[in-house]
Amino acid sequence: MKFGIFYELSVPRPFSRANEWLTYHNALEQCRVADELGFDHVWAVEHHFLEEYSHCPAPEVFLTAVAAQTRRIRVGHGAVVCVPEMNNPIRVAERAAALDIISNGRLELGTARSSTWTELGGFCADPDDTKKTWDEFCRVIPQMWTDDDFGWEGARFEMPARNVIPKPFQEPHPPMWVTVTTPGTELDAAERGLGCLGVSAAPFAEQERRTKEYYRRVANCDPVGSFVNDQVHTLNFLYCHEDYRQAAALGLPMVGAFSMSNAHLYFTREAYPTRAYQTLGNAGAALRSRGTPNGSAPADDPSAAKGLPEGVGIGDPDHLVRTIRKWEDVGVTGINFLLNAMEMIPQEQVLDSLRLFATEVIPQFRTPDERAARVQAPTTVPDVGASGTPVPSTMPAGAGR
Amino acid sequence: MISGTASVDELAAGAPEIAAFGTESVRLCGVTGLSLVAELRRPAREAVLPPGLHPIVPPAMSLLAWDVSESPWGAFSAAFVRVVCRSGARARTFCVGAAASTHDAVAGLRSQFGFPTRQAEISLRRHYDEVDLRVSAEDDDGGSHGGGEGGSAGSNGRSNRLMLALSALDPDPLSVGDLQHVGSMNLAHTPLGLRLVQVETHHEPSRVERLAARIDAFDAAAWGQPLLDPYWVVSCSVSLEDIEIPASRFVCDPALPAAEGTERVQ
Predict the structure, then answer these.
(1) How large a percentage of chain B has pLDDT more than 90?
(2) Domain that holds residue A267
(3) Using a CB-CB distance cutoff of 8 angstroms, which residues of chain B are in contact with residue A52?
(4) Is pLDDT above 70 for B146?
(5) H-type helices in chain B, by residue range?
(6) Is residue A148 part of a domain?
């Protein structure tokens, strides 16, 4: 089981330069602490114009700072919106490769297509086309990373042959993912050999059904990249406290506020009738239904006895260990946690929660060898040999699976 | 989370009266429906909604028009101007103005469902590759209004005020499930007091098409909300469908968030 932290960079109202600064810098501090504590990933989304919910339109900038301030944690650029009005695929490949170099080979690249009219409309993008452009981006980016002479004549993107440089540090290229908000996208991920980066937390039973089908399909996939990334990560919230009542008192309002801010986005399906968006893509709906005690857990769920919602990472360490075991049982290989929303939880308490989780929970999911490796792992810096050719001394855990 | 800032007292001034909550649904058959979404300028975002509702970003308006062949109120046409919003976490619209072509439809929409409806001439016409909608009403305060061209003399000699004109071209077929309908919150005086009446229509479309639309005239004041300025058309669709308007089951206090102010009426 891998553990990550996940950033939307939601900012409290009233908006001010100071509030945005604080949100960014608190997040950077959390990343530094998470790195020291042995978390595996930090992910940052790309969203535009989503006031309050996400002030993170330039994740590559945020993640470059993370890379420069950390040593081990992998940086998840996720997800890049694969819509040409927002990102040219050449620029995505270039920026990602540069970030992989800066981070010494710690990049993971997520792909997405945006689900809100707020974003697509703001860039005058055609909602009918986003699934097609996403598919094309997923196919061309890994080729740009590995071919010295790459050209393309596709349906929605074309370029004459060029050598897209720099190449990423990881060989053959960083792992690629798809964000999965709407049911069915996990199948798109599987068929392309892409990791499933869940950003909408489904209940255990639904996650198990989707995960099983994902693994069945990915085993026979035609990968768009040079290798198959068959990992399934899910999104959750984290607030860990020795007393589960205190965890609930502080954590559940954060869940509710985040989910409510998500529900207030203007989803494409609501604004623009199209075949391309069959559901709202509303991550908040699933999260919201689980963020309140009265939408709570079935009797066999570890949350039930404590009146906590099913499967949510809010509680004491014992509770979280049992909850994560259930996620592990349904085939999830990683959980990425939102640590805060609109800075509702004071920074010191967010950091205390991270430390407690890392001390009491994460070790339960590591083998003795993994624990030892983490302590001893050197910073991944290339050795420059006598020929002047850099050779990576150690590839980070999980790279190039 | 932002909330509406409109004065509930001012909004209440023109609100319809529901003397008793109905228990029967109303079925509209053989409906040609038009649905248009347009973005509004930012000053309208909070100012047009009561405190119990939440605006979206960007602010947007939903315009509906129906040409109904059969209903308990007979054949009629109607048009509704609604601001897209949220009630709690749920997608809703706040109906700021409505018009219907017959007295019975006006009375039914007002007294059963709280739509703030006035009588108007409504023409929703479907051509081979074009749809046009025109709404005009007898001028009720003397006549010198904006709203573009199109004022005209009615049969009684009084001037007609053009409330809305739009045209839409090049229908592109969609699946009937591709069109999402969002319920209305209608401010009305009810037996429980001034309330937002939740009206969720059920649609059974047999045909849905998307078109490219242009608003030629929109007289915001005539619809009861001068701040509305639909400057950027997002989408437009036409449909053939039957519509059921079920009896309302929930109302909300317009001054309170939905979580605190929602009441079940049946």
Answers:
(1) 86
(2) 2-366
(3) 1
(4) no
(5) 8-12, 44-47, 103-113, 258-261
(6) yes
- B144 CB contacts (<8 Å, ≥6 apart)? none
Give the per-residue SS3 of A15-60: CCHHHHHHHHHHHHHHHHHHHHHCCCEEEECCCCCCCCCCCCCCHH
- Residue A372 placed within a domain: no
Contact A118 B58 (CB under 8 A): yes
Of the residues A13, A117, A259, A268, the best mutation for testing chain B's interface (the one with the most B CB atoms within 10 Å of its CB) is: A117
Number of A to B CB contacts under 8 A, please give it. 71
Count other Cβ atoms within 10 Å, centred on residue A136: 21
B105 interface with A at CB cutoff 8 Å:
no
Quick check: A376 pLDDT over 60? no
Is residue A99 one of the residues assigned to a domain?
Answer: yes
Contact assignment for A273 to B60 by CB distance below 8 Å:
no
pLDDT digits (tens, 9 = 90+) for B34-68: 999 999 998 888 999 999 999 999 999 999 999 99
What is the rounded average pLDDT of the residues B204-228? 96
Residue type, A394: T
Decide if A295 is inside a domain.
yes
The CATH number, out of the four listed (3.20.20.140, 3.30.70.60, 2.40.50.870, 2.40.400.10), of the domain defined by the range B8-264: 2.40.400.10
- ipTM of the complex in this document: 0.91
Residue B235 contacts A where some CB pair is shorter than 8 Å: yes
Q: Tell me the shortest Cα–Cα distance from B209 to chain A, in angstroms.
A: 9
Range A311-336 burial, b when 16+ CB lie within 10 A, else e: bbbbbbbebbbebbebbeebbbbbbb
Counting the structural domains of chain A, the total is 1
Please report the pLDDT score of residue A19 as a whole number: 96
pLDDT at B137: 95
CATH number of the domain residue A268 falls in:
3.20.20.30
Provide, as residue numbers in chain A, all residues whose Cβ is less than 8 Å from the Cβ of B237: 273
pLDDT at A297: 56
Residue range A351-377: mean pLDDT, rounded: 85
CB B38 within 8 A of CB B61: yes
Of A164-173, A379-388, B170-179, B206-215, the one with minimum mean pLDDT is A379-388
Q: Is the pLDDT of residue A401 over 50?
A: no
Residue of A nearest to B210 (CA): A273
pLDDT in tens, A50-86: 999 999 999 999 999 999 999 999 999 989 999 999 9
Q: How far apart are CA B74 and CA B105, in angstroms?
A: 8
Cross-chain residue pair A269–B180, CB shorter than 8 Å: yes
Query: In this predicted structure, what is the pLDDT of residue A315?
Result: 96
Question: Which chain A residues are within 8 Å of B182, Cβ to Cβ?
Answer: 270
Task: Please judge whether B57 and A121 are an interchain contact, meaning their C-beta atoms are less than 8 angstroms apart.
Answer: no
CA distance A5 to A43: 6
Does A115 reach chain B within 8 Å, measured CB to CB? Answer: no
Residue A21's identity, in one-letter code, is W
